[in-house]
Each structure stands twice: as C-alpha cells, then as structure tokens.
Specification:
Blueprint lengths: L3 H22 L5 H24 L15 E4 L10 H38 L2 E4 L2 E6 L6 E3 L2 E5 L6 H16 L2 H14 L4 H23 L4 H10 L11 E2 L5 H9 L14 H45 L6 H22 L8 E3 L5 E3 L22 H14 L4 H5 L4 E9 L5 E8 L5 H15 L5 E3 L2 E14 L2
Helix pairs in contact: 1-2, 1-6, 2-6, 3-5, 4-6, 5-6, 6-8, 7-8, 9-10
Length: about 475
C-alpha cells in the first residue's frame, strides 16, 4: 500500500461517511439500514479510490504508458524536492507497515484458532440450526456464525437462559460474524488507520442494538437490562466474536429504552444520495481523463502505423529491389498490418511490437524493461521498476520549467510525448503526440532530447536480447 494519494482518498471517504453516520443516523432505530450503510461505505471507501487507479492508461492496453503523469505548476518551476533520504524514509515506513500487517494477521489467525480449539474440545450439542458450545461457568456468552458459546444451563435461571440464547441467536440470524470478519480483513491492510477501528466499534454497537431489539420483542426491557448489568465480563472470550456483555452497556440500555424512530425520519437518509453521486462523478471524471489520454495515444498510434504501411508499400514498388530487401519489406508490411488490426480492435497485447522505419522491432512490453542509469532492481510486465520510475521523475522535474510564453497566455493542458529506449540505452524517435503550444511542447522535447547527453539507460531485453522499447510520457501543465 505505497500509493499515498489513494490511501489519502480512502481516508477522506471513510471520514466523510462515518461523520455523516454519527451526525445524522446514529440515534435512529433503523438498525438494519444503519448496518447496511456502515458495511457498504466501509467497502466502497476502499473500492472507489482503488478502482480509479486501474482506469489510468496502463501497460496492459498494448500502448505502454509506464510513466506516471507529471504535473508542472505555474507557481514553482521545480515542484519535486527529492533527496536520497526520502528513499530511506519510504523504506522504513514500508517495513513498519508490513510488520504491523503481519502482527494484525497473526492475531486474527490466533483468534480463529482459539475458536476452532473451543469448538473441537468443549462439550457441544445441536439445537435446531445452532451449535451450543459449553463454556466454564465464569465465562460470558458469545457467538460466532452458528456457534453459540455459553455456560451450562444450570448456571442461569430459565428466563436468563432464554434471553441470552435469543440474543445470541439474533447475532447468528443477522450474520453479524460476516461483518466482523470483513472488518478484520480490512484491518489487516489498514491497521494504521484509526477510522477502521471507528467503523469496527460502530458495527459492534449496531450488532448489539439489533440483538437487543430481537430479545426485547419477547422479554421485558427492564428485566433484560438488569440481566445485562448483573453479568460479569470474565472468563474466555474471543475478539472476533459477538459478545453478550458488550462494554458499552449504558449505550445499549439507553437505545433499548428509546422509542422507535418515526418513518418520517427516513428522510435523513436522502442526504446521503448527493454524496454518493458526487463521489461517483469524481470517479467518472478521473476515468474520463485517463480515457482521453488512451484515445489520443490510440489515434496517434494508428496514424503512425498507416504512415509506415504507405512508406513500405511505396518501397515495394521499386523494381530494382533485391530479393532479400523485398522479403524484409514484406515482413515489415505483415507485422505492421497485424499491429494495426490489434489497435483498431483494441486488442490487448502485452508483447505487441511493430517495425520502425529502420526495420527494427519496437516493443511495447518486454521481459526486462529498460532501467534508468544507476538502477538495477529490474522489472518486467510493462512496468518500470520503482528505482527507475523515481529517478526518471526526479530527472524531469529538476529540468522542466513552465514556459514564460505559456504563463503569459495562461495556457494549460496535457502534453503527451512518445520516445523509444533503443538497444544502446539512448532515446530515439522522440516526438509529441499531442501538444498545447506556448513552448510547453518544446520544453518536454528538449528535456527528453537532452537526456541522451546525461543518461544512458540499461536497454530492455526480450528473450535475452537487447530490444527497442516504447514509452508514453504525459506531462500536465497547470497554472494552479
């Protein structure tokens, strides 16, 4: 989880939803709706920001864009402050994150193991669709799925036994354990985020409210409240279960004594709809923006292939061609025709290639992608390794400036450039696929062209041989 913008967006989503819950919905007795709201927003808070990252133009389209979009602002010519210490900090943070996730996962597995051990070792009997697992007499009742963990019947009065059993059966019938498992899974990944724990405790409250509501439909509220107060929270319990004795007894009893919310209060939930619409609008905007880049690259790629086909066809008309040269041109014609068909049909080809004007193959993705000078981590599947990505971004940001002409004309927009890292580690065929003028196109071109004087890449390799690899570089110029 090293995508900081995505993590921030997930946190913002959760903050918004949980704030709306406590401001508008928490005191309402529509427990089923509140539970649905909490579970859905917990999941959507992760899905919406995460899915957006997969709508960006990536290597899997057959038109490789392995380089993240660079944003150049009008306020500062060099917007990236990079130093070697940043890498060390990132490394330490990654280590802390994975250690925390590992500990959280081990605790989760330990609790699962503890439950399994109780189910196997303790006396049990079937009661309808439920399994009653006998606990020591000093243990508070709890449940997980269809397993109800409770002391011997003789430990309680008949009424107490019925009330406790009804409460735990309600947990089982409402599948509260599924919510708990879901929140525990999310906690493994986001253990560092306090909002996960806020969600977890909010869900536990709702579970208890629902189970109490089911119990008090058949039993007197005051009698049931006294039972809750008399119970001692002792003996064995498991963190991932629904516990009969919940720590917030005052909160539960207060909610039990609250009158049912009027149906007119359901209007509160209508306030949530505009927020959903707004978030999906933002999501669609991100996808639309990324699709615009992809469409531009698709279009330029088609035009380039058509030009190559016309040139090759014209060359084949030459009657003085040697048989070897004619065969070479025919092979180039077939290869580029195949590539054009793939592009028109939006066929995804991770190993797609075409032949350039010099007859050399140009790959979009290879076994070992090119590496920026000084980087040796290696990466395949159409991706730059992290070292190369950071070093390239650092290089460009330290060179690029917002052109004065573009500032004066208040020009902003995205410049999409293309270049090839050749078999010797130098850039060639550098060109702008789409520009905005005002000197911005020339600024990007000059930096890429000047890179050959400063940097030699480690060439990309396919089947152990150095090959030409194409990259697409989007650079966004914005004044604010």
């Amino acid at each position: 989880m090293n995508n900081i913008p995505t993590l921030i967006e997930i946190t913002l989503h959760w903050s918004l939803w949980i704030s709306l819950y406590y401001l508008l919905l928490y005191k309402q007795t529509f427990f089923k709706i509140n539970r649905t709201f909490l579970v859905s927003t917990l999941v959507l808070g992760v899905i919406i920001p995460t899915v957006q990252t997969f709508f960006t133009v990536t290597q899997d389209t057959g038109l490789i864009i392995s380089i993240p979009e660079l944003i150049v602002t009008g306020q500062s010519p060099n917007v990236l402050n990079y130093s070697p210490s940043n890498s060390n900090i990132t490394s330490w943070l990654s280590t802390i994150y994975y250690v925390g996730s590992s500990i959280t996962m081990l605790l989760f597995l330990f609790n699962i193991g503890k439950l399994i051990r109780l189910i196997i070792k303790m006396p049990k009997r079937k009661k309808g669709k439920y399994w009653l697992i006998e606990l020591p007499d000093d243990s508070a009742p709890f449940s997980f799925l269809n397993f109800i963990f409770i002391s011997r019947k003789e430990t309680y009065t008949q009424q107490e036994w019925e009330q406790i059993l009804l409460h735990e059966q309600a947990h089982s019938d409402h599948l509260h354990s599924v919510d708990i498992l879901l929140s525990e899974m999310i906690k493994i990944v986001f253990w560092w985020n306090p909002l996960v724990y806020v969600y977890k405790y909010a869900l536990r409250d709702i579970h208890e409210f629902q189970a109490d509501q089911a119990t008090t439909k058949k039993h007197n509220k005051k009698t049931y409240s006294r039972l809750l107060l008399r119970q001692k929270q002792s003996g064995m319990q498991v963190a991932i279960t629904s516990n009969f004795i919940h720590s917030q007894l005052k909160k539960r009893i207060k909610m039990m004594m609250t009158n049912q919310s009027k149906k007119s209060e359901l209007f509160r939930y209508l306030f949530i709809l505009p927020v959903f619409v707004a978030l999906f609008f933002v999501s669609c905007k991100t996808q639309e923006d990324s699709q615009q880049i992809e469409n531009t690259v698709q279009s330029e790629e088609k035009e380039h292939l058509k030009e190559e086909l016309l040139k090759t066809t014209e060359s084949l008309k030459d009657k003085d061609l040697t048989p070897e040269k004619r065969a070479e041109l025919q092979e180039r014609l077939r290869t580029n025709l195949d590539e054009l068909k793939k592009t028109k049909g939006f066929t995804k080809s991770r190993k797609s290639k075409q032949l350039g004007a010099d007859g050399q193959a140009i790959y979009k993705s290879v076994d070992a992608m090119p590496q920026f000078q000084g980087c040796t981590d290696g990466a395949g599947n159409g991706k730059l390794d992290k070292c190369s990505e950071k070093a390239l971004i650092h290089y460009i940001y330290n060179k690029i400036h917002y052109p004065d002409e573009a500032r004066e004309q208040k020009l902003q927009g995205r410049v999409i450039a293309s270049f090839i890292v050749n078999t010797k580690g130098k850039l060639k065929d550098i060109k702008v696929l789409r520009g905005i003028g005002g000197g911005c196109d020339e600024e990007v071109l000059s930096i890429l062209e000047g890179m050959n004087d400063d940097i030699t890449w480690t060439p990309g390799q396919e089947a152990g041989k150095n090959v030409n690899v194409q990259y697409i570089l989007p650079v966004k110029f914005q004044l604010e």
